[in-house]
């Protein structure tokens, strides 16, 4: 089985999530945001690292 994979790299809050969501919605790619795994939810965001 062949897979088409797009790996988008960028700093947190640089727009990579927006691009990933657009690829998901418009082309059917599965979007996984590593910010959801690396950072704990805080307000403001990106203040406390999670445990990978």
Describe this structure in a few short sentences:
This protein has one domain. The protein has about 50 residues and is mostly helical.
Task: List descriptors.
52 residues, mainly alpha
Outline the fold blueprint.
Elements: H1 16-27, H2 35-38
Word description of this protein:
With 52 residues, the protein is mainly α. It has one domain. It is built from 2 helices and no strands. The longest helix is centred in the middle third of the chain and has 12 residues, at 16-27. It is elongated and about 40 Å long. The relative contact order is 0.17.
Indicate the radius of gyration in whole angstroms.
Answer: 13 Å
Identify the overall geometry: elongated
The percentage helix is 25-40%
**Strand residue percentage:** under 5%
Compute the number of structural domains: 1
Average of pLDDT: 86
| Distinct helical segment count | 2
Low-confidence stretches: none
Structural class estimated from helices and strands: mainly alpha
> What's the total count of β strands?
0
Order of helices and strands: HH
> Sheet bearing the most strands, described?
none
């Amino acid at each position: 089985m062949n897979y088409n994979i797009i790996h988008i790299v960028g700093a947190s809050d640089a727009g990579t999530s927006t691009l990933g969501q657009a690829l998901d919605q418009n082309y059917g790619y599965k979007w996984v945001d590593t910010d959801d795994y690396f950072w704990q939810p805080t307000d403001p965001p990106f203040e406390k690292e999670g445990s990978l």
